[in-house]
Amino acid sequence: MAGRVAEEHPHGADRLCAAGDRVYSRAVRRGRVPRTDAEAVPCLLELALLHPDPDDMDWLVPTSPQEVMTRLLRGVYDEVSASQRRVGSAVAAFEWYAGLGRRLGAPAAPAEGSAIRVLDGLSRIQAAMDEATEACTTEVLTVQPGGIRREAELTEGLHRALALRGRGVRMRDLYTHVARHGQGLLNYLELMGDTVEARTLDEVIDRLILFDRTVAFIPANADRTMALELRHPALVEYLGTVFERLWRLAIPLTAPLPDTGIEGISHREQSIAALLAEGHQDAVIAERLGISVRTCRAHIARLSETLGAASRTQLGVRIAQVGLDGHRGSGLPAGALTAPDQGSPSVR
Predict the structure, then answer these.
(1) CA nearest 141: which of 222, 250, 35, 224?
(2) What is the spatial distance between Cα 128 and Cα 124, in angstroms, rounded to a whole number?
(3) What is the tens place of the pLDDT at every residue in 165-184?
(4) What is the DSSP annotation of 211-246?
(5) Strands, sheet with 226-230, edge to edge from the N-terminal-most edge strand
(6) Long-range contacts of 297-306 (CB under 8 A, 24+ apart)
């Protein structure tokens, strides 16, 4: 039975079937629907969008749209975090194998075309990037961590970007949400026109540049004075898959960030609250979101004020109570927080 349901309704709560959309919307408008109305859409029960009315089992009541949104955002966050952990493990493994090769007496300068090359020094990195740019004919995928892009960073790679645009190569860039506030990035995207498409996330993996799904570059040390040039098909394919997963979860730069559903709490503060709930320190949170520690602490102070928390311990409790940690809590006392009017639900 479960297998047949999955085949007939192969979707999640983020993209309901037409029949499910109609029944769920009707349940939200009216407060409940007869159980018979849901017989054709078992997906709504499977996805916990409808559940039995404890006062009358012949009726079904809807899960609130706000709770569904919270659940979806938590799922996105978990998916991004899992991808980041997998890429971090892969990078650590690359460094270990590269170091092992040197200890075993591997040549200091591997032959051209080898699966993994260690590029030591900015000049070697730039030369390898220029070579990959000249050979690129189809697409470039990049992940740019950190916050607002500095003018020097944008200028350094501008000649490569212009050369690619001149040959009709498409480019897709991933940034953190903080990068939206950088005028330099906006100027760069305006210059490049529709050749470049940009999206943003709360957090992204470390820097990645991928040319034509054949060669990738990733940092090999913390200060980025060393890089790994990867040409092994399996490694490059893996990194391309990670990029596509993040791209699907990211928000176009031209689109606004989603509302948190809680008055007085911004999208960035929601991200900070989730990381605080995981036990991260201020410096770690700031680095992951691409903001300064000072800015991070200012947001935490506003969170405390909005949630009425007098200490970090109490703030953690309040974050859990209102569901900013990704889980639905028991809720604050009536009137402690107000959520904006949700209006008519729209489930994609």
Answers:
(1) 250
(2) 6
(3) 989 999 999 988 888 877 77
(4) ETTTEEEEESSTTSSEEEEE--HHHHHHHHHHHHHH
(5) 116-120, 226-230, 215-219, 208-211, 139-144, 170-176, 196-201, 251-252
(6) 299/266, 299/268, 299/269, 299/272, 300/272, 300/276, 302/269, 303/265, 303/269, 303/272, 303/273, 306/264, 306/265, 306/269, 306/337
- Going by their DSSP bridges, the two strands 208-211 and 139-144 should be labelled as antiparallel
Q: Is 83 left (phi over 0), alpha (psi -120 to 50) or beta?
A: alpha
Nearest CA-CA partner of 276 in 246, 249, 307: 307
- Say if residues 37 and 23 touch (Cβ distance below 8 Å): yes
β-bridge partners, 116: 230
Closest CA to 67 of 222, 262, 309: 262
Phi and psi at 322, nearest 5°, equal -95, 0
What's the token pair of residue 169?
């190569």
* pLDDT single digits (tens) 78-110: 777 777 777 777 777 776 776 676 655 544 444
What are the φ and ψ backbone dihedral angles of 34, each rounded to 5 degrees?
A: -65, 145
The answer to whether 46 touches 212, Cβ cutoff 8 Å, is no
